[in-house]
Amino acid sequence: MNIEKVKQALGKVNDPELNQDLVSLNMVRDIKIEGDKVSFTVVLTTPACPLKTIIEEDCKKAVSAVGFKPENIKINMTGEVRKHGAQGKEALKGINQIIAISSGKGGVGKTTVSVNVAIALSQMGAKVGLLDADITGPNVPIMMGSQEPPKVENAKIIPKENYGIKYISMGVLVPPDQPVVWRGPMLDGVIKQFLRDVIWGELDYLLVDLPPGTGDAQLTICQAVPLAGGVIVTTPQDVALLDSRKSVNMFKQMKVPILGVVENMSYFICPKCDERTEIFSYGGGEKAAKNLNVPFLGRIPIELKVREGGDSGKPICAVNPEHEISKTFKEVAGKIAASASVTTINAKQPVIAI
Ligand SMILES: Nc1ncnc2c1ncn2[C@@H]1O[C@H](COP(=O)(O)OP(=O)(O)OP(=O)(O)O)[C@@H](O)[C@H]1O
Ligand SMILES: [Mg+2]
Fold it and tell me: Do the Cβ atoms of 18 and 341 come closer than 8 Å?
């Protein structure tokens, strides 16, 4: 039995999401054969890969088909987030993928989703940063549990850090009750500073929590840096969905790949009687994703502990990772990461504008 044969067998295993085989994706490393035993490493495109177990099983099947007993096959499954191509823009050193979280309508849960997804990705082994691009209404510091100002070193900002997430926000730079009354060009300037004058270090993912709508902040982020993609958060009722289309079309116009739609506040389960109520209707996000031909990334119910966690700076994913809703956030985080892997692998192909 030789290494080439094992490689050939693994060359027939596909990553179902990326639709290519593991060998041409350069995911298979360190194949070693000792007697009747074989070991190798599979480097997935994200530690948050939702298909990890399926891919591992497929590898096992493929290698046992060329003569190794299943108990003699040792697979080390790991993940490395690949750097998204620059798309002619200036990439940020040390940051592999930048993901924007947006919505057409305000108050649908962008910041809640950004914070909990960031924590979920970090719990799955990724290095994650969070940039609050909502300059006039910054909510990230409250939800992350600290509004104290950051340290500054040689005119560069050291990001705040909590729950394993590095973050920056206007909310840690101005007193909480002081309004930021700024015009577009000033917002543009501060967002660019948050991108370039913050010592982010090495990050797998930088999540950008956008203000609602399709204004200056969106324009700056889409133009200033290469994005692995945009996520659209919506609630399921018609008015929110209508606004989501605007977000989708904005990303398309800006040639930013769309990672998909998250439906938040999908339904409510009464803690007393377990009855399910669909407060904002149901299923609209999934239907809209289908109509817009973008991936559906999952639905998150209304849950009192999510709101309490947001208000108290103790996000549910950080303080209660075993809670059902934290698992839901983890699934959504995995789908976002997988979708960003797809756009990164495909980045060389031009994104089609509408
Ligand atoms: N799934 C949920 N269950 C319960 N409460 C939620 C949920 N998602 C968000 N909330 C609550 O709804 C409120 C609005 O959420 P959030 O601030 O995340 O929305 P947003 O889209 O970022 O708002 P804005 O447009 O003002 O930036 C917050 O009080 C938050 O705690
Ligand atoms: Mg917000």
Answer: yes
pLDDT in tens, 61-72: 999 999 999 999
d(CA 157, CA 274): 47
Find the helix or strand (DSSP H, E) in which 66 lies: none
What ranges in 254-323 are assigned the alpha helix state H?
A: 284-292, 304-312, 316-319
38's enclosing H/E stretch is strand 37-44
Query: Quick one: which atom of ligand 1 is closest to the CA of 134?
Result: 27
Q: Which amino acid makes up residue 265?
A: M
Joined tokens for residue 190: 């501060």
Residue 179: exposure state from Cβ atoms within 10 A (0-12, 13-18, ≥19): exposed
pLDDT tens digits along 321-336: 999 999 999 999 999 9
Cα of first residue to Cα of last residue in the chain, in angstroms, is 52
| pTM (global) more than 0.90 | yes
Instruction: Report all structural domains of the chain as residue ranges with CATH numbers, in order of start.
Output: 3-79 (3.30.300.130), 95-345 (3.40.50.300)
Max CA pair span of the chain: 71
How much distance in Å is there from the Cα of 205 to the middle of ligand 2?
A: 19
Q: How many CB atoms lie within 10 A of CB 278?
A: 16
Hey, what amino acid is at 139? N
Give the helix/strand (H/E) hosting 130. strand 128-132
The answer to whether residues 115 and 167 touch, using CB atoms and an 8 Å cutoff, is no
Nearest CA to ligand 1 atom 2: 302
Nearest atom in ligand 1 to 114's CA:
18
